[in-house]
Amino acid sequence: MAPRLMKILFITSNRLGDAVISTGVLSALQARYPSALFTVVCGPVAAGLFEPDPRCERVITMEKRRHDRHWLDLWRQCVRTRWFLVVDLRGSLLSLTLRTRRRLIVRGGRRDGRKVEQLGQALGRNQAPKPRVWVSDEQERSARALLPDGKWLALGPTANWDGKIWPPERFAALAEGLKAQDLRPVLFYGPGDAEKERAKPVLEALPDALDLGGNRELGEVAALLRRCALFVGNDSGLMHLAAAAGTPTLGLFGPSRMSEYAPSGENAFALSAPGTEGEAALMGLSASEVLDVARAILNGKAEAFRT
């Protein structure tokens, strides 16, 4: 009789940034169970993160519905499967109702330390699992065509709320200051009119910049970011994606918590506005300060800002 396939259910965040942070956990599980097939549950904005993964048998997108009916929909899609392992980073009741040999459930709530380290500790790992990205061959080819070999400066001038956005004119000043390093700016932002509007002032201030924002597959965005010498951007899902892709990444923090959500990767750096964490305004972070750190990263002299 043929052996039963080992199936693992991985429930992660609806938000892109948290979903990116969780990819290190998924990658560690894939290394531990090399013959397993994975089903990933996430929000629609994060689905493209997992779709290029060859070990991912299925991506279930969970769109929020009234009265929490999205959890009932998910239960219906999962209840007939006998799982080898259910990993629930949402701490939901659903994971307690599924047939599985083992469960790993991470409860919510704010904890001390970086989010990536919190996940590693909750899952019993001594070392925080580094986030990663998956890119298809087609996405890689598309990125090479859009960004030929050169020195590109990736800018991420948007975020999910205005308090996390560094002033647009300072992004423009940063790009002008890095022209001495022969860096040409490329703007990235997410889909939708609100994202486009937030990016518009920077696009207008930098007429020579490439506009690569909008509705692109996340794997393609990751491949594009890998072709950039540096990413500078607000605390956002895009910032976490850049760091996971291995791009030297400088995240800018004001009212959001750098101690918890600093980017994680081999070349991840962060800079916080002066003031009390959670209350500091990004207006307090000057273009010259960010420019100095960006130059230090490019010159390999920014260890004080490494996360």
TrEMBL record:
| Coiled-coil boundaries | none
Tell me the keywords, alphabetical order: Glycosyltransferase, Transferase
Q: Does the keyword Transferase apply?
A: yes
Q: Name one Pfam family in it.
A: Glyco_transf_9
Q: Which domain of life is it from?
A: Bacteria
Q: Give the protein name, as stated in the record.
A: Lipopolysaccharide heptosyltransferase
